[in-house]
Automatic annotation (TrEMBL):
Domain Transposase IS30-like HTH: 5-45
Domain HTH marR-type stretches: 117-159
Biological-process GO terms, alphabetical: transposition
Signal sequence range: none
Gene3D superfamilies in the cross-refs: Winged helix-like DNA-binding domain superfamily/Winged helix DNA-binding domain
InterPro entries, per the entry: HTH_MarR-typ (IPR000835), IS30-like_HTH (IPR025246), Transposase-Integrase (IPR051917), WH-like_DNA-bd_sf (IPR036388), WH_DNA-bd_sf (IPR036390)
Name this polypeptide is given: Helix-turn-helix domain-containing protein
GO molecular function: DNA-binding transcription factor activity; transposase activity
Location of region: Disordered: 56-88, 230-252
Gene Ontology CC entries for this record: cytosol
Length: 252
């Protein structure tokens, strides 16, 4: 199996494979590369719909040049516990950040979220985030405000009364519930529009269709989140929570 960095020709093959709708595993098999290599390459360079071989190659060259430069004071990578490879962790954090950005999360929020998620404690102070990400305190503050609003992080005080930002096992559940609530608000507004525009008009029918679709999505999301939480996060000996009723596909 070949090792080292991907060549420009390999990147062109990846782009062709994506255009043909091939799965990452199939593209990797044709290149005789690990699937993780192809996945990381695509996600750090725009994702499957925006990947461009030439741009990806140039970006890789720029990253390689940056690594050769002396690191600024205070920018040294934190020591890695458990015998982890610091460079592999750094590259994975970059890939994870890119995936979060691809899901629609703003760039700085993605960096903060990835940084918090990949710590063993699942929490960092603002100053620790500033030091790790080499950004301004204001950037961290704005990112945390956004992530809190989406229920991705929470705040707590440690024994030194410092404010810490925390991600935990429940964070994705809370985020999914918040997303379902946001969708439900769109449903409510859409149904208000039906009354304003007049029933049986084209615009009102369109809004009703939106409301019915999103209503089903919202209830399905809430139900799936509750079920996953009950199954995956229930402590031994604790009976799982009763799942909510099946979502309704039609509300009239």
């Amino acid at each position: 199996m070949p090792g080292g960095r991907l060549t420009q020709q390999e990147r062109q093959q990846i782009a062709l494979g994506l255009a043909d709708g091939l799965a990452y595993a199939e593209i990797a098999r044709r290149l005789d590369r690990p699937t993780s290599t192809v996945t990381r390459e695509v996600m750090r360079n725009g994702g499957p719909t925006a990947y461009r071989a030439e741009l990806a190659h140039r970006a890789t060259e720029r990253r390689a040049q940056r690594r050769k430069r002396p690191a600024p004071r205070g920018a040294e990578a934190p020591p890695q516990p458990h015998g982890r490879d610091a460079e592999a962790v750094r590259e994975y954090e970059e890939t994870f950040t890119t995936v979060l950005m691809g899901s629609g999360m703003p760039a700085m929020c993605s960096r903060v979220m990835a940084c918090l998620t990949l710590t063993d404690t699942g929490s960092l102070t603002a100053s620790e985030l500033v030091q790790r990400l080499q950004v301004s305190p204001a950037s961290i503050s704005k990112a945390i405000a956004f992530l809190e609003g989406q229920a991705f992080v929470r705040r707590e005080r440690d024994e030194r009364r410092r404010e810490r930002y925390v991600v935990d096992d429940d964070v994705w559940y809370q985020s999914m519930v918040a997303a379902a609530r946001s969708i439900a608000q769109v449903v409510e507004i859409a149904r208000q529009g039906v009354g304003v525009l007049g029933s049986d008009t084209p615009a009102a029918n369109r809004l009703e269709g939106i409301a019915r679709f999103l209503d089903f999505v919202s209830e399905s999301t809430s139900r799936a989140a509750e079920q996953a939480r009950a199954i995956l996060h229930t402590k031994p000996g604790t009976p799982p929570a009763t799942a909510p009723a099946e979502p309704r596909a039609d509300r009239g």
